[in-house]
Amino acid sequence: MKNEKTIFIRCSEETLLLAKALAEHEDRSVNKQIIHLIHSAAKKNPILAGELSRRKTVYPNKKETKYGLVELAKSLQKVIPQDPKN
To answer: What is the distance between the alpha carbons of residues 78 and 33, in angstroms, rounded to a whole number?
Structure first.
């Protein structure tokens, strides 16, 4: 259990009730039911965890995100006109 990771899931109350009902029906905890569903989905769509770390997902319409104060200042310079007196 040393390498176990934590996942927090935000969901509607309806989704939580569905998860609880599924888990109870399968005689599992909600946590184990979610893990079971993830592994079942991965078997149906041959996905291996090792492949995911090597695969880079491409988002065609996603703009490159720039971080830091320097990039923020550059983006503000484009939006806020400079006063020629300064």
So the answer is: 50
51-66 residues labelled b (16+ CB within 10 A) or e (exposed): eeeeeeeeeeeeeeee
pLDDT of residue 59: 56
d(CA 39, CA 30): 14
Tell me the pLDDT tens digit for each residue of 39-69: 888 888 776 666 665 556 665 666 666 667 7
What is the distance between the alpha carbons of residues 22 and 1, in angstroms, rounded to a whole number? 25
In 1-86, which residue ranges form alpha helices assigned H by DSSP?
13-25, 30-44, 49-54, 69-79
Quick one: how far is CA 64 from the chain centroid? 17
pTM of the model: 0.52
